[in-house]
Design a protein that fits this description.
Length: 469
Amino acid sequence: MSEPLLDRHVAFVHALRGAGLPVSLAEGLDAAKALTVIDLAERETLREAYAATLVKRHQHRPGFDALFDLWFPPVISDGYGPPVHSGDRTGRPAQPAPPDMPAPPEPAELAELRDRLADLLMGDPDDPAFRAFARAMVERFGKVPASGHRQSWFSYVVLRALSPQTLIARMLDRMLPERGGVPEKLARERIARSIRKFEEAVASDVRRRIAEESGIEKIAKATVGPPIDRVDFLRLTKDELARLRREVYPLARRLATRLTAKQKRGHRGRLDFRRTVRASLSTGGVPLTTHLRPRRPHKPELVILCDASDSVAAFSHFTLLLTFALREQFTKVRAFAFVDHVDEITAFFRPGADVLDAITRITKEADMARFGRTNYGHVFTKFAERYGDAIGPRTSLLILGDARSNYQPPALDVLGRLAGEARHAYWLNPEPHPQWDTGDSVATAYAGIVPMYECRNVAQLVTFIEDLA
C-alpha cells in the first residue's frame, strides 16, 4: 500500500471512530489487508471491502457511506465538473478554483433538464449516468451566495430548480402503459425510491464540493451524526424516536432473558425431605446426598416506574416504548408514570393497542401531575400507599428517571422499603454521571438504595442488560 493511501486509510478509520462507529484496531488492520487484494480502481469494490471489515450493524451504514464519499470521492471524468484527485498526505483533496456563479436557466433549458431527469428516474438508479446527471445539476445550480461575500454549495437549490416531486404524475402516465398495467402502488414506490436516490446523490456531491473548499475533517464533523444507538435519549428527535422503535423489541427480549436467568440461579428449589430420607437408607440413615424439588419455571413479574416530566420527555417516550415491548416478555407487567403524582398506565398497553396511540392517551388521560413539578419523594410515598401490593418476592422493580426532585424531601426510607420487598431493583438515569448531585439531583442518595446506572442511549442500555449476571 502506498504511503498516501495508507495516510488516507488511517484518517478515514479515525473519522469513523469520531462519528461513533465502533472500529477496533484489529478491524482497521483487516481493512488495510483487504485493500491489498482488490482492484483499487473499482470504487464500489473499495467501498464494500471497507464495509465488510468495518461495519457491524446496518444502523451504521448510512454514516459509513457518507464518510466514504468524502474520503474517497469519485473521479469526475464525464465533463460535468472538475476532476477530483487524491489529495496530499493528510487526506485533504486539492482545492480547484471555484466556478463562476451559474446563470439563471432559460425556460427551454429547464424543461429539457426536467425531461432528462424524468427519463433517469424511470430507469436504473444505479446507472452511472444517474449520478453523473446529479453532479451536473449540482454544478449547474448548486452554488449560491452564503454569508458575507462567500459562496457555498447547497442541495436544496438544485432540488428546488428541478422539483422532482412534481414529475411524479408525468412518470406515472408513462410507466403504467409501458409496463402493461403495472399496479399504481408499485409504480409510485419505484418512483419514490428513485427520487430518494437522486436526492442522496445530490447531497453527496454537495458534501464533496464543500469538502474540497473547507476540508474533509470539517465537513465530516458537521455532516455525519452519531449512530442511532449512541444518540442521547434526552436529545432524541421525532424521526429518531421512530427509528428507535425497531431497537426496542430485541432489547425487551434480552432484558427479560437476563432477569429470568438471575432468578433461576437464585433459587434451586426447596428440599425434598422424602427423597432425601429414602436415599439415606443406603448409607445407614446418614443423609449424605440431599435432593431438591424441581423448581417450577415461570416468567418474572415486572413493575416499571417511569418519570414522564418535561425534563425527560424524550427519554420517557422511549421508556414507554420499552414498556410496551416488555409486556409480552413477562407473566405480569404493571407500569406507572409520574410527575409529582403517580398513576397506573398498564391498561393503556393492552394487547393489540397501537403504541403511539397509547402514549398519546397517557399524556392526556393519566393522572400524573398536580402542580407539574417533579417530586420523587411524594411519588414514592403515594405509590407505596396506593400500589404497594404490586411489588412482591417475584417482582423486578425498574425505575426510569433523572432523580431530580425540585428540592423536595426524597423519602429514602419509603424507597428502601419498596426495593427491599422486590426481588431485584434497578434505576436507569438518562443524565451523564458528572451531572448527578448537581442542582436538585439526589442521584447518589437514591443510588445508595437502588443500584443506579447511567443510561443515556441504546448502547448504554445494551451494556446494562449484558451486565445483569
